Amino acid sequence: MEGKKVVITGGAGFIGSHLAERLVNQGNEVVIIDTLLRGNKIPKPIFDKVSFHKVDVADRDEVTKLCKGVDVIFHFAAILGVDIVADNPIETMETEVNGMQSVAYAASVNRVPKIVYASTSGIYGHLALEKSVDEEILVDPRTSYAMAKRYNEIYLASLFEEKGIESLALRFFNIYGPRQDNRMVIPRFMEQALSGKPLTVYGSGQQTRDFTYVDDAITATILLAEKVRGFEIFNIANEREASIQQLAETIISSSNSNSTIQHIDAPKKRYDYEVGRRFGSSEKLEKATGYKPKTSLKEGLEILFNN
Question: 104 and 253: one domain?
């Protein structure tokens, strides 16, 4: 993608900042909308090249003004982190729903042709634990976060049916990489390992996740934005599962740490987030773009430790 004008809501966050960096480097005009509640993760050389606006995505009037003449809105603003989301379920849902309605209104008024939305693999809930999940499976959202994300997917499908605004809902599977903070498990484990503290693992550690490196996720996001028409849902997954125990052991080994692994009980508020097994299929992504994530967890961790 090049020569386009794009808006990224949540563009100063982890995934949004990587997307902004890639799009700027490809020669696009990038407008960032962010409250900076979690700081600014955009590298300064890139930040100097974007148009930044400290605006809440729920501010419909301001968002509408900022979306004039835009080719794509990447709607990535969200509340993240299991503990934060679990403690603030109403705020989480309001942020998702109000933000989407604001973005949809801005797209409609300004005739923006496409919205790309950051959804989540959490929509799959506790179902399909014995195989990789694809986009056709019946979803099972159980948390306020996942329910709001699923609502927004349906909202976007309706928006296309009624108003012809094309959109993509991207179900991200455990994205990780540089600039991620310790609300997420990989930077938390790395921080503990590098300081020699025990790595705290909830439960047995045998629960699995599909860890997808951020550069792969950004490549997939941009290719889908370029190639896919209408409304579609796509998994962005590495297709390889790793247990949390394996992750902790790999991080200790990669960092030459003397840390131990400490198993603790998960708080009750995390129950619906503690899925036993989940990894995704990127077959639909590959069919649409010829690409799927390729960075192994070991390779991704090596990049992080060498940064």
Answer: no
Contact status, residue 172 vs residue 212, Cβ threshold 8 Å: yes
Q: Number of structural domains, the chain?
A: 2
pLDDT digits (tens, 9 = 90+) for 19-69: 999 999 999 999 999 999 888 999 999 999 999 999 999 999 999 999 999
Q: Which of 145, 176, 213, 273 is catalytic?
A: 145
Which helix (H) or strand (E) is 215 found in, with range?
A: helix 214-227
Note if the pTM is more than 0.85: yes
> Is 202 one of the annotated active-site residues of the chain?
no
- Span 153-181, pLDDT tens digits: 999 999 999 999 999 999 999 999 999 98
* Co-location of 49 and 158 in the same domain: yes
Q: How far apart are CA 110 and CA 114, in angstroms?
A: 11
Residues 14 and 129 in one domain: yes
Asked whether residue 169 falls in the same domain as residue 253, the answer is: no
Q: Which domain holds residue 249?
A: 185-207+241-277+298-306
- Beta-strand pair 242-243/208-209: antiparallel
For residue 280, the cross-strand partners are 133
